[in-house]
Amino acid sequence: MQTPTSPQVKRLVVANWKMNPETKKEAEMLARMSVKIGTGLKRSELVICPPFPFLGLSAYMRMPKSISLGVQDVYPERAGARTGEVSLSMVKDMKARYVIVGHSERRAGGETDALVSKKARAVIAAGMRPIVCVGETSRDGDAKYLRILREQLLESLAGISKNNASTLIVAYEPVWAVGASVADDPHETAETILFIRKTLADMFSERIALTIPILYGGAVSDKNAAAFLAHAGVQGLLLGRSGRDSKQLAGIIKASELTPFPQI
Question: 173 catalytic, yes or no?
Fold first, then answer.
């Protein structure tokens, strides 16, 4: 059985551009930079998640196998009278393989666990992989945040069968660290990751839980990426602003390539 630490499984480095950049010219430059950094990777896969208008850039036409396209959200239907929405069939036709669902910034705008579940199930049914985000808004001393995480996992992954569970990717993003200058401590993150994996085992099975990659997101930089990969028990990273900075992205990719896989 391949687990997230098996030699055949690559780490995921997911660059979420969010609502950036402002122009197509800037997006082309950013895409070319990302493709250059992500070419020739052996132990990692770089997933570029641009805004919808920039999915069809020429820089993506000849991407190496070490780079994939993803999107930051999607509407969980193929087509219909849904003004302003973007469907699964549209993004799949643009060669997207991954879909971020339930990002903390979407949840802050009112996205519910039930809608996250609907999106995740629809993504799987469309033959793509959902990156399901969970995370607490604050870290308390009496472990209430763990109950919040468990509830998010149970409800956001509701309705996903054991047969489809290995398609999942879970991203742990403590909301208080997203966009902040200071990340979580990798050793404290490790305890939370163990809790998440235990919850996944309760939901599906221990065997299946070991096949589900867990990413960390929240103030990831070239300075702390290796520590998270070595000590936090994660199998990849979800980037925000550092995914748009050439120096930062190159350093994070280097850490992903060189840091040994820990055992889980």
Answer: yes
Contact 50, 262 (CB under 8 A): no
Domains in the chain: ranges and CATH: 11-258 (3.20.20.70)
Q: Which of 45, 105, 136, 173 is catalytic?
A: 173
Q: Which helix (H) or strand (E) holds 238?
A: strand 236-239
The catalytic residue among 103, 191, 206, 231 is 103
236 φ/ψ sector (left φ>0, alpha ψ -120 to 50, else beta): left
> Catalytic annotation on 187?
no
Task: Provide block-wise average pLDDT over 10 residues at a time, the chain (264 residues).
Answer: 62 98 97 96 98 91 93 94 96 97 96 98 98 90 87 98 98 84 84 97 98 96 97 97 98 98 75
Global pTM value: 0.95
Query: Helices (H) and strands (E) in the chain — how many of each?
Result: 10, 8
**Contact 30/54 with Cβ under 8 angstroms?**
no
**φ, ψ dihedrals at 202, nearest 5°:** -65, -35
Burial (Cβ within 10 Å: 0-12, 13-18, ≥19) of residue 171: buried
Are 121 and 160 in contact by the 8 Å Cβ rule? The answer is yes
